[in-house]
Give the backbone structure.
Amino acid sequence: MTLKSILRESDEQSRRAFLANTARGLLGLGAMPLFSRFAGAAMPQDAAAPVALRPATARNVIYLYMSGGMSHLDTFDLKPGSEVQGPIERLKTNADDVFVSQHFPLLARHMDKVAVINSLSSNQGAHEQGRYFMHTSYEMRGTIKHPTLGSWVHRMAGRVNPNLPGHVTVGNAGPGESAGFLESRYLPLPIGDPEAGLQNSVRAKGVDEKTFARRLDRLRRMNGAFADRYGAKAVRGYSDMYDDAVKLMSSADLEAFDLEREPEAVRAAYGDDPFGQGCLLARRLVEHGVRFVEVTSGGWDTHNDNFEQMEEKCPVIDRALASLLADLEARGLLDETIVVLATEFGRTPEIVTERNSGRNHHPKAFSGLLAGGGIRGGRTWGKTDERGENVIENKVLVPDFNATIAHALGLPLDHVLTSPSGRPFTVAHKGKPILELFA
Amino acid sequence: MSGSTPSRIRAIPVFLIGFLALGGVLMLRPAPASARIAAVPAPDAAAAAREIDAIVARFQNEHGAKANPVCDDETFLRRLYLSAIGRVPTTEEARRFLDSQDSQRRAKLVDELLDSKGWVSHRFNRWADLLRIKSRLGGQVSGAPYEHWLKDALATNKPYDRMVTELLTANGAAHARDNGATGYYLRDRGMPQDNMANTMRLFLGTRIECAQCHNHPFDKWTQLDFFKLSAFTADLVYRDVTTLADEKSAAIREVQQEIRRSGDRSKQQAFNLRILRGTSAGISHTGSGLAMLPKDYQYDDAKGGDIVQAQVPFGEQPALKVRQPNRRQLERLRRAQNRPNRRGDGFRFPPVNSRAAFAEWVTSPQNDRFSAVAVNRAWQEAMGVGLVEPVDDFGDDTEAMIPELLRHLQDYFVATGFDLKELQRAIFLSRTWQREAVTEEWTPGEVWAFRGPTLRRLSAEQTWDSLVTLVDRDVDAGLEAPLSEEAERVYAQHDRVYEMTADELRAEVDRFEMRRQDPAKFRAEERRRLAALREKAAPVLRELRLARRAQDRDRERAALAKLEELGLPQGRPARRGNRDNRTVRASDLPQPAPAGHFLGRFGQSDREVISGAQLDPNVPQVLDLLNGFVEEQILSNPLASLIEELDGTQGVEARIRLAYLAILSRRPDAEELGQWRAEIRRDSDEGLADLVWTLVNSHEFRFLR
């Protein structure tokens, strides 16, 4: 019971409380027998301080998520001449060893920056479980919620720009994507529509600066009186948050959320669609010191009309990703930013003809991309058999993939964070980073 | 921290002794419930409240702590409305109470609110967080019947032990009328062990989930304990397209056989998805009481592949006669175990109602922990700190901060037949609950003197529902009945399949198949079909339009029912705002509210884990109050109740009083009145807008005193 009680105290609040209580106990102030069970416990470190990082090759992450299960066979793991391939042709790229589908002509000119992982493998064949696993490295459980990679990074590495959130999601974040057992401050700031930016961050229509200032003044007076009378920590927390929000409203960093500031040509290059504009927003946010940005592209669940859908979906990714890589490189940001393209699973080699050539879920083998942030591009890692059905070389499990990203950021993979219920967890859940990708 | 004082460890209460028994062998039993009930004169909430006060006073005396004064009427009013029905009172409700001279006005208001629709709504939010209620349960199973079950249980004040029994023994189709309790298991589809861990935590305050994968590192639970426990529900079948033979109509059987014989796979799929899934998705198998240990079982107390019999980890073993599998079954099981997906092959031990036996054990008055956990949660919700903390981690050495009080609350709860509403009534009537708020925070391990309830931020739902009350003072009148239109739609769809003739079924399958095969052709056909229907229903559609224009809800409902009958369902009746941002109570919105909703920003649980709600501040929340909701829904909305009332009120002072009453449920003091009078004299409209904006953004609005 004793050890359990102590470990359970590991969230920051209770640790502080624990320290305060221990001090009180030591000083004989309000000491109580109940408390003796803590006697002799080592002083836990302050859990909310960022973790000491190892040498890192990247500082930021732009994480592009293909929601629904992107077909590996029709994007980055083509099998020309095979019966499983269907009508899609293979395209040469600017890297010798790397091929992409015919739907990626722009990206083909930037594959020298990209490492294609063709040996990803998962054991989760349903969407929700699959995306949960991909995002957290842990299988979904009914009793605990695990933080997503973005929340892990935010928690372990801290913010780059203290005025901006540490972690932003653009587009529809899926169910179960959260800070898990971490405190809510590690939740991502969600941006639904990249063109709308940060909601409510400008004064409402008809409220001029003078009016706003006057109201804030009245509010401070009123809240000050309340805080004086009820000096609870939660009350002070809200006073601070009002200060933060008002600061952000007038902060120059707020422009990070404003795509109107981009030249028309740049906006057009990324593509006039939510995903393209989301990638552009991601670049702006990273530039302003947001450490982790996830952009979601939906609709990859191609049970029906797989090849027609590829024709529609791939060009969106092609434009956006090619522009993003070129843009990051031109701004000198590619070296410090690891760009990830991930999905929950691949799709079956079998083409289901009665559903107008659809493909079903296939978690055993699929593809993802890593670029920038110390990753050596222009090559392919891992291999599937001639049908794209099984991994036959350098299998990369989902935790390994995430461990590689964490490794690039310098996050210690063995650093244990304890949930409030006393259970130990690590970023990437014991996954092994693919060190060869950095060479 | 003032008010907290050292405690002496008291004698271990009787009920704990039972839990000292290891390995499920009961050494000592607590006194039977009936014997304990005799100690309580009669289920009388006022008497129970006096006893609460007496016990707390003794405890405070012993520890030299002083209770806070009883709060004033204004504080009581706001606290009771928010605690009992989850929103601030309207100005009319506030005046009615504050102007009352009745010496019994507090007790009367408690009774009134506990019997209101608002109470059901607010209790629903609380239980939705505990049960992780979702409007979509996955695999095309609607959560609406589960929501209906919960609202109905609350509206009829179903005894708590009944509620829990219905959840644990739920069986049958999820979409069948009044069978929503099946949502409890379907919520954790494919994860019966996780569900069991949640059951133990939720109803018995016992954290055993670690033992799912390994012996508990700090507690006594072994993995073997967990497997034995999970044997009560391990054979649960999450039905998908497997309607049991005796549940099928003759027509369904006929068409199913016909399609099977034809060998047309596409048609079979269409039949499964369209006809069977809607009727059969649900739960079956009452439980075998047996489970097989995994092949890689790692401890010495048993061997991998052993079959273990259901056993509870503490208390008296429930009576259960398992039926051991015969040799043939064992053979089949062994073969199945060598295949990777053992559950996939459909092997189950014979059912012997082990889930019912388990439910009986959980909810028995002899299972002291069952009532202890329930009353402790209720106490914590009302007072801000539980008698046992954390509320869901009772252990053998757990001692309540005031054991006598926990005992008293449990006795009262059991004596009233597990009546959660009576329990809440007793707490609300107590002077202990009616005292001025404590502003210090409780810290783990510290003894708490319960000088009064703690100051707390309003939950996401309380915040939303209160703001919505400012927009629409009649919001509670619009609350959906326990049976929502969505649940009714699901039931009707389920029932319709059983009433279909073989020809209707064939037509339905063909239509669905076409939709999957050739969506363009399907849409064209569907347009033609609907056009014909619409022509036939033209008079009713006109009636609907007229009813809506006249805002006559009864006429509207009648027209909608007629259209449903004609095969032209119109969905939900029109309401203010778009579907997800409607200014209705949180309990009538999708569960949980969709991504990006106000409720999510303010920490509504995403319903992934038990008690997932958060009260932490964040920037988007504050931005919403600074520049969003208040401006859009109230200040710029001439139809907002608060604005209407302000417009209809003459005189600066009366308007200031009105705003304070509507938003903070109190009168302004002289200084506040003076300040705002000066502002509003200078510019009436601007000044009033400033006032409303400031009060809604104030800490006083956000926090419950």
